[in-house]
Amino acid sequence: MGKKSSSNSTSLSIFNPKYYLKKPQQLVLVIFGFISLVLLVSDRQNLTRDHQEEVLRLNEELARLKLQLEDFNVRVKWSAGLDSADISKDDDDDPVSVERREKVKEAMLHAWTSYEKYAWGHDELQPQTRNGVDSFGGLGATLVDSLDTLFIMGLHEQFQRAKEWVANSLDFNKDYVASVFETTIRVVGGLLSAYDLSGDKIFLEKAKDIADRLLPAWNSPSGIPYNRINLAHGSAHNFGWTGGNSILADSGTEQLELIALSQRTKDPKYQEKVEKVIKELQKTFPADGLLPMYINPRSGTAAYSTITFGAMGDSFYEYLLKVWIQGNKTEAVKHYREMWETSMKGLQSLVRKTTPSSFTYICEKNGNFLSDKMDELACFAPGMLALGSKGYGSGEAEKILSLAEELAWTCYNFYQLTPTKLAGENYYFHPGQDMNVGTSWNILRPETVESLFYLWRITGNKTYQEWGWNIFQAFEKNSRLETGYVGLKDVNSGIKDNMMQSFFLAETLKYLYLLFSPTSVISLDEWVFNTEAHPLRIVTRGDLHQENFQVERQQKLPIHFRGRKEGRLGYN
């Protein structure tokens, strides 16, 4: 017993600080041991981080190899004479386009992987600082914006993980003042497109939830919506800097999404709200079809301000055409086409040419004064004109298509005339100088490649594919980092910013992918794109039989396209 007691006494003494004062050698050993332990733990943590980085890199490389292997297998099948039905469907899918499409797909995989790793669930990724930011109130904007791109590209494992986040984590009950416009085109549009493509009703349920929270914005005296709304409380108002006015593009760019939502839920309230806006604007629609960027929500009439096909005006005109297409060009939507054609006469009155190179551009207008300035945002117009040309008679159709091609050449040169081959935000035109960059940043915008996509689909001219490929290569050279993609603060110097915009995944990469895909993939006869590049199924106005619509949609997916998507990647 005495021996055991002595042992206990010794073991307890080592925890007594006085023990080490009597034996300093023991103190040194303890300190040395502690430091060694700290270094060992720290080294293991560093090794763990290094291991995670290496695993991520190897997984990404594995994904790329799998893409290459599948493409090789497809080519072997083709050379062996197999899948002849698929070949007949996709006879425009040449090997160069296949290779380029896969490069764009790999870029999407890189962007998405970076978002998953550093910003999962946040609105947008800041690649340089490797963190997420909530630019839109924490609605997972990049994730929701990317759903249909992932689906179309066949990235099904990534799509499934995103769907699970939508089902389990996407919560709209936030005390946050949201942009009605941005939330509609990105979130409502993204969810509806994911629903139309996959048939999964969780996307429709979520789209209805957020749309119900946005709906009070239309409760103005005229029905012209206020542009900002608190998602939790439903209180709506406009930006202070507009003088209380609503913005034209922000008020006239919700029709596609909410009409589609009414069709799919069989609840007319969404469609009624947005169609009232068009009816109100139609009352005082000008002879040239050009509305200024500010609309008074009390009276429903235009307020004196700039007329533009760039920022704050652009997508209003786009949606006049696309609602007509969405409604299957029937009598019920004829007035949309008529308003659009009137506006296109107005657009042509704003067209000028530069000297000495005769670049065609669209002016802005203040009163009777024309400003020789064009936003890159206005580069959606060539695609819109090309898409709308099909509704004219032969002579006028050729004229409109020719104008579209001229404007596309200008927009392409917005890119080609800078040192980085990326476009600035806007351009000014001066006699004898052609064009000069105004605001010199590039934030990965999609408008030019969007127009190239439409022009290629409508004309079959592969020149537009070449232009798109050159733009893609410029993004790869200047904007790609190990942690995602960033814009440029200055297209002349190439200095990078720290933001991967959600529309880069939703629009820019999707349009580039489709530019190199067979025309049967998201056919323009069956789908219409919202202004955030989310494809919505064309449904004849009044046809709300959604279940039949789903079955028909799934049956019409191209066999070759569907087959190539199955099990493409094992990336985690």
TrEMBL record:
Pfam families tied to this protein: Glyco_hydro_47 (PF01532)
Coiled-coil residue windows: 48-75
Listed InterPro entries: 6hp_glycosidase-like_sf, Glyco_hydro_47, Glycosyl_Hydrolase_47, Seven-hairpin_glycosidases
Catalytically driven reaction(s): N(4)-(alpha-D-Man-(1->2)-alpha-D-Man-(1->2)-alpha-D-Man-(1->3)-[alpha-D-Man-(1->3)-[alpha-D-Man-(1->2)-alpha-D-Man-(1->6)]-alpha-D-Man-(1->6)]-beta-D-Man-(1->4)-beta-D-GlcNAc-(1->4)-beta-D-GlcNAc)-L-asparaginyl-[protein] (N-glucan mannose isomer 8A1,2,3B1,3) + 3 H2O = N(4)-(alpha-D-Man-(1->3)-[alpha-D-Man-(1->3)-[alpha-D-Man-(1->6)]-alpha-D-Man-(1->6)]-beta-D-Man-(1->4)-beta-D-GlcNAc-(1->4)-beta-D-GlcNAc)-L-asparaginyl-[protein] (N-glucan mannose isomer 5A1,2) + 3 beta-D-mannose; N(4)-(alpha-D-Man-(1->2)-alpha-D-Man-(1->2)-alpha-D-Man-(1->3)-[alpha-D-Man-(1->2)-alpha-D-Man-(1->3)-[alpha-D-Man-(1->2)-alpha-D-Man-(1->6)]-alpha-D-Man-(1->6)]-beta-D-Man-(1->4)-beta-D-GlcNAc-(1->4)-beta-D-GlcNAc)-L-asparaginyl-[protein] (N-glucan mannose isomer 9A1,2,3B1,2,3) + 4 H2O = N(4)-(alpha-D-Man-(1->3)-[alpha-D-Man-(1->3)-[alpha-D-Man-(1->6)]-alpha-D-Man-(1->6)]-beta-D-Man-(1->4)-beta-D-GlcNAc-(1->4)-beta-D-GlcNAc)-L-asparaginyl-[protein] (N-glucan mannose isomer 5A1,2) + 4 beta-D-mannose
Disulfide bonds: C379-C411
Binding site residues for Ca(2+): T531
Enzyme class: hydrolase
UniProt keywords, alphabetically: Calcium, Coiled coil, Disulfide bond, Glycoprotein, Glycosidase, Golgi apparatus, Hydrolase, Magnesium, Manganese, Membrane, Metal-binding, Signal-anchor, Transmembrane, Transmembrane helix
Residues of the active site: E182 (proton donor), D314, E425 (proton donor), E447
Annotated GO CC locations: endoplasmic reticulum; Golgi membrane
Keyword match Lyase: no
Subcellular location per the Swiss-Prot or TrEMBL entry: Endomembrane system; Golgi apparatus membrane
Its membrane topology: Single-pass type II membrane protein; Single-pass membrane protein
Gene Ontology MF terms in the entry: calcium ion binding; mannosyl-oligosaccharide 1,2-alpha-mannosidase activity
Documented EC number(s): 3.2.1.-
Pathway entry: Protein modification; protein glycosylation
Biological process terms in GO annotation: carbohydrate metabolic process; N-glycan processing
Cofactor or coenzyme needed: Ca(2+); Mg(2+); Mn(2+)
Similarity comment: family membership: Belongs to the glycosyl hydrolase 47 family.
Function description: Class I alpha-mannosidase essential for early N-glycan processing. Progressively trims alpha-1,2-linked mannose residues. Produces Man(5)GlcNAc(2) from Man(8)GlcNAc(2), but only Man(6)GlcNAc(2) from Man(9)GlcNAc(2). Has difficulty acting on the terminal mannose of the b-branch. Involved in root development and cell wall biosynthesis.
Protein name: alpha-1,2-Mannosidase
